[in-house]
Amino acid sequence: MPMLRSRHRLAAALVLLGATGAAFAGPAVTKSSEGPVRCELDVSRRGGSVELTALAHAEKAMRGEYAFRVSGRGTDIRQGGPFAVASGGTAQLGTVTLGTGGSGYDADLSLVVDGKTISCSDRVGGGI
């Protein structure tokens, strides 16, 4: 977890650029607002691909359901199911690895905890 926290602190905001290569150039994080449960979409470049990781953070131990969707031209990936997070912890919910060529991707993560929905969304790569 120390590496995850370090990467979390060092991640820069994703700058959406018209050039696909520039949009995939560095790490980025999209987070929900601060609260007892937060979602996060972590975007990292891995060689000729981009990796999107869905994360849940919690101040106290909790359980819930998640839905992670990544879509774009020719792509519609859906992951989901139950999750649990330890007090003060982070749970990795799912990871998707995609090519960096072509159009961008829309990434959406929703957490449902105690009947409340927390969401994160981002557009990764491509022009807008």
Structure, explained:
This protein is mainly beta and 128 residues long. It is built from two helices and eight strands; from the N terminus they run ααββββββββ. It comes from Aurantimonas aggregata. Pfam families: CsgH. InterPro entries: CsgH-like (IPR048632), CsgH_dom (IPR047726), Curli_assembly_CsgC/AgfC (IPR053722). This is CsgH-like domain-containing protein.
Summarize this structure briefly.
With 128 residues, the chain is mainly beta. Helix content is 10%, strand content 58%.
What is the arithmetic mean of pLDDT?
75
Q: Helix/strand/pairing class, anyone?
A: mainly beta
User: Topology as H/E string?
Assistant: HHEEEEEEEE
- Globular, elongated, flat, extended or rod-shaped: what is the shape? elongated
Report the uncertain regions: 1-28
Count of helix runs: 2
Number of strands: 8
Instruction: Enter the CATH topology name.
Output: Immunoglobulin-like
CATH class: Mainly Beta
Task: Report, as a whole number of angstroms, the end-to-end distance.
Answer: 34 Å
| Strand residue content | over 45%
Strand order of the largest sheet: 1-2-3-6
Which second-level CATH architecture applies? Sandwich
Helicity level: 10-25%
Biggest beta sheet summary? 4 strands, antiparallel
Output the radius of gyration. 14 Å
How would you name the oligomeric state of the polypeptide chains in this document?
single chain
Q: How many domains make up the coordinates?
A: 1
Domain CsgH-like: 37-120
Keywords: Signal
InterPro entries: CsgH-like, CsgH_dom, Curli_assembly_CsgC/AgfC
Signal peptide: 1-25
